[in-house]
Design a protein that fits this description.
globular; mainly alpha
Length: about 260
């Protein structure tokens, strides 16, 4: 399935939505880095031009230019000149995982739990509403999304679950609810991909995804809400365990007896 799927388009749009915190260079850089970490932007993806990026983020063109320069220095993007010129994402899947692990290690447990709670509440609410709003064509589309074959970078852990949750939000037919969830996923989705690196959780998520589709087809909002809450609860438990392991001090090597 190409990256131009509706869920991926919505996630990418969230990356380039207006900044509400202001127009500082570091905020623009952080937004792009989060987009890369979450999988909204993949290796080889072309970024908007400086002018277009500035307009979509609501910042000055010079701010976008300086942010791109900073991203180049940090190795996140490369800029080419000529006919096919522009700025392109250079971070691959493996490097992205290392980036997210570093972010997780720096996140406090309070912030991690709070973000997961916010994500779960909005995701489950959107799924509950989608149960009463989805028509047969919508349900067929979700079935195709769940059954789609993936290859290359789209084989990233958690991509199927992310697409399903993003589509559930869209099927709520609430612009506000969808926008809030997509923004949350752009922030929390990168951590969810780490949870999917656990083979047992990833295998469970495939059965979970099938159950999600069937609950949508049955119009069972309560079951959809329960499934989404269960997914979030299991994922955050794994993330807390992994974060604790990253934060644990390394034991000193035993003193030499020679």
């Amino acid at each position: 399935m190409p990256y131009s799927t509706s869920p991926q388009r919505r996630l990418r749009a969230a990356v380039f939505s207006p900044l509400v915190e202001g127009g500082k260079v570091e905020l623009v850089e952080d937004r792009i880095v989060r987009g890369i970490a979450s999988g909204a932007l993949h290796e080889g993806d072309r970024l908007p031009s400086e002018a277009d990026m500035a307009a979509s983020l609501g910042v000055a063109t010079v701010t976008a230019r300086e942010a791109l320069a900073g991203l180049r220095r940090r190795g996140f993007v490369a800029t080419r000149r000529g006919r096919d010129g522009g700025s392109y994402v250079t971070m691959n899947h493996r490097d992205r995982s290392e980036l997210v692990l570093a972010q997780l290690a720096e996140t406090t447990l309070v912030d991690l739990r709070d973000l997961a709670l916010h994500y779960g509440v909005i995701a489950s609410a959107a799924a509950f509403v989608a149960a009463s709003m989805a028509d047969p064509d919508d349900i067929d589309g979700v079935r195709r999304l769940a059954a789609a074959e993936r290859g290359g970078e789209e084989a990233d852990p958690g991509a199927r679950a992310a697409d399903l949750l993003l589509e559930m939000a869209a099927l709520s037919h609430s612009a506000r609810l969808t926008r809030e969830f997509v923004q949350l996923h752009a922030e929390f989705g990168s951590y969810l991909r780490l949870a999917h690196e656990d083979p047992d959780f990833d295998a469970w998520s495939h059965t979970w995804g099938d159950a999600l589709v069937e609950a949508l087809a049955a119009g069972d909002g309560d079951e959809l809400r329960r499934l989404v809450q269960d997914y979030t609860r299991r994922a955050v438990a794994l993330l807390i365990t992994r974060r604790d392991a990253l934060a644990a001090p390394t034991e000193p090597a035993p003193a030499s007896t020679i």
